[in-house]
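Can you please make up a whole protein chain along with its backbone structure tokens because I've never seen that pairing?
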Amino acid sequence: FPYTTLFRSDLLPSGYLAPYGTPGYDPRFPPMQLGFPATTDAGGNYSFHDVPAHDYIFGLQKSGYAVTLDPYDYDSLPSIRIKPGQPAKQDLSLAPVASVTGHLLDHDTGLPIAGLQIVRLRRVYYDGSEQWLVFGASKAGKNPGDFEASSLGPGEYYFEVTPIEKERITLRNETNRTPEPYGRSFYAEARDIADATPVTLAAGEKRSLDVLVQKHPLRRVTADIIVPPELSKERIGIALERQTWMTPYLQTVATLESSGAEIPIEVYPTSDGEYALVAWSADRKNENGFVAVHHFSMADRDVDGIKLTLEPDLKVHGKLMVEPGSGEPPTAAT
């Protein structure tokens, strides 16, 4: 039977959706702490009792089913307003989940490509604005290039193809590494999501999909991390971050040992866009750490000669006070 939860709309984690497009399970916010749980009976009936007056959103969970929303609109998730002393009724709808299986194939040879994955995206509307929501990466199949995307609610999806390994930060001129010439792209053979072709799935549909992937030259980024003498022989953390259509996110991290005044590195980003290269002293506590940040753009060209000089990081001091219960004095917190 479906597991139904009634959530106060103002207590939901901002911008969060659970699998299948329903607000609900999150390890950080167990449903029992956020709302009122109930399980439907054999007739599909549910009930909540002693519910305070407020605006609420429904969360539905049942293996093999998803909430039906078309078009997909986060602002129109099943909701209800409870008024003081008045009973309320709301019928809810679930649909069998859909799935997509297929192959990732080289555009020129038609051969399967190993080392790539499919990421599922949906265009959603939240607080009146359009956003892209990532619904996880698809599982690899038994053979190279095979993939499977399961437990999908009905609606429109976009498929992003990315290398599983992502970028790797390595020491320059010491790896002899030739990365695979497959960067980030979208179905069908688009370099930008604005040019991508959506895949519309009906409830319970099982779709077979072959995805052709074109080769394109990967651009190289080279940089020198300038290490002050006090960090000699210490480990230096290095990260490449990319600004996406949703939010900045961490692409790759490396920790390299400082053996001199400079650490020469290289990395091959998988797509154009706005990036930040960040370095920090990995072996030091916050109170005496060093950091460096450099922002740059990738647009069909190599980026060479970046210099990052590690400098003492800025300090912000303050005190966090925890409000006590009745009759207790305030206490300091970390």
Notes: Residues 31-34 form the longest helix (4 residues). The two ends are 43 Å apart (CA to CA). The longest strand covers residues 116-126.
